[in-house]
Specification:
Length: 258
């Protein structure tokens, strides 16, 4: 039986596959952009580097979560004088009286739109509308909690796993050597699993942040290769003569039976 390939698929099939692959590609770019926006500046510096990854999972054990936030991704929401006031309050022990007199008005003006009781519960972000809520982020910054990591990991494993499966179902119809085909199919699954496992390892030991970056990069490269190869073969690759297809199918069958 002749294997159906992407280059020989009819127009309707190619349009369906291409629309899905392009949408997945755009979604992945948006996800990477969001990842950059949420991680950049966590170490108090502009841009994103390895220390930002470490801070996200291991934390900044020399400072508090609130200080890391206002010097990092939340810096744009505060004036320099307001940030200095909050940091001084943190350095003096974060007393409740200081919160009522100085800190609450600043948070009320700049942060409560998102960090109120209702929205913070929905978005799983700190509730800064009360002193008790603020106390949760005036402790030493130890990165994401285990509960948050478990919640994120099961969402990513299910969601990305299904996405990779759907992309792979299309890609498996490409015309490639078996070793390259099998490598590109398995690599993104292994990479995303290594990436997520490394979140937990980084919380224990910060050097595993390199594994987080490597796993995520390999997953993106492998999935991107699947998408680009599939689109190329659907629209730019000329279909092979049926005799060559039958010959290749026979060779593949003989190899698989060895």
């Amino acid at each position: 039986m002749v294997k159906e390939t992407l280059s020989t698929a009819n127009l309707s099939v190619r349009l369906l596959y291409s629309s899905f692959l392009i949408l997945i590609g755009i979604g992945y770019i948006a996800a990477v952009t969001y990842l950059y926006m949420t991680h950049a500046g966590l170490d108090g510096k502009s841009g994103i580097d390895m220390q930002d990854i470490v801070t996200s999972y291991y934390g900044n054990r020399s400072g508090t979560r609130l200080e890391a936030a206002i010097q990092g991704p939340m810096k744009i929401h505060l004036q320099p004088a307001q940030s200095a006031t909050i940091i001084h309050w943190l350095n003096t022990g974060a007393p409740q009286q200081g919160y009522q007199n100085e800190i609450r008005p600043i948070l009320q003006q700049n942060c409560m739109e998102c960090h109120n009781a209702t929205t913070s519960s929905m978005l799983k972000i700190p509730n800064l509308s009360s002193f008790q809520g603020v106390q949760q982020v005036t402790k030493v910054n130890k990165g994401m909690s285990i509960q948050s990591l478990v919640q994120l990991s099961h969402i990513h494993l299910f969601g990305i796993g299904l996405m990779l499966f759907a992309v792979g179902i299309i890609f498996i119809k490409a015309e490639l050597s078996p070793w390259l085909m099998n490598t590109l199919i398995v690599l993104p699954f292994v990479s995303i699993l290594a990436d997520i496992v490394s979140w937990f390892l980084t919380k224990w030991y910060p050097l595993y942040a390199y594994a987080v970056v490597l796993g995520g990069a390999l997953m993106g490269i492998a999935m991107g290769a699947q998408i680009l190869i599939s689109l190329y073969q659907m629209w730019l690759l000329s279909p092979r003569p049926i005799s060559l297809v039958l010959a290749q199918s026979s060779v593949d069958h003989q190899i698989s039976s060895l």
